Structure to design on (226 residues):
């Protein structure tokens, strides 16, 4: 009898462990639906013809990842408290889709991604901005959500330096989508305000860089006219 009880407990614990990370339909269905809705909207708006799927993972890790073999994108439960709107969820999903596009390029690209992770993180950030804009979301959301999560144990921490990474994203938006900075929906957002404080010197360098490039371009045009 004792052996039967121990066996029953063992099976029960094993079952609980296996189901711990699976979505619970009664509680997690809204998250799963929202994830698929935004994920496929980004794929369709950008005419991505590579197969990717989206899953909500009932796990407390602050993480998002794509599996290299199956191209399944997982958004972890631990990220939910850091996400305030669809734009921010779209930013996280778009970043993983960007990785997925590289993973679809084959073994050589996957190897390069492992050997040079920071380079491909930065690339994924830039591609994510394009994906977000094309799908009708605000690219500044990527800065917001990364500012909230950089330093967490999984998502965004073991990659590139937080401040520099945020500045790189800002520079890309500054150069390619400046209208979002002029008509800034996040202007009064406390997380964006924190970003402005912590990247003040980096942003000054960016502005100076493009002002110098603009002056050089004007000067070259005047020389050609002469």
């Amino acid at each position: 009898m004792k052996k039967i009880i121990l066996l029953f407990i063992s099976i029960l614990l094993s079952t609980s462990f296996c189901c711990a990370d699976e979505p619970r339909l009664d509680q997690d269905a809204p998250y799963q639906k929202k994830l698929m809705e935004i994920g496929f909207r980004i794929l369709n708006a950008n005419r991505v013809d590579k197969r990717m799927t989206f899953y909500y993972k009932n796990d407390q890790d602050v993480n998002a990842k794509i599996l290299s073999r199956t191209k399944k994108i997982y958004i972890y439960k631990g990220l939910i408290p850091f996400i305030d709107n669809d734009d921010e969820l779209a930013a996280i999903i778009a970043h993983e889709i960007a990785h997925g596009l590289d993973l679809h390029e084959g073994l050589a690209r996957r190897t390069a991604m492992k050997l040079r992770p920071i380079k491909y993180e930065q690339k994924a950030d830039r591609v994510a901005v394009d994906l977000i804009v094309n799908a009708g979301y605000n690219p500044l959301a990527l800065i917001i959500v990364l500012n909230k999560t950089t330093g967490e144990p999984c998502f965004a921490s073991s990659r590139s330096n937080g401040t520099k990474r945020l500045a790189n994203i800002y520079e890309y938006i500054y150069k390619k989508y400046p209208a979002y900075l002029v008509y800034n929906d996040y202007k009064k957002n406390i997380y964006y305000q924190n970003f402005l404080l912590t990247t003040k010197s980096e942003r000054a360098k960016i502005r100076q860089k493009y002002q110098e490039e603009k002056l050089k371009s004007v000067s070259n045009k005047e020389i050609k006219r002469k």
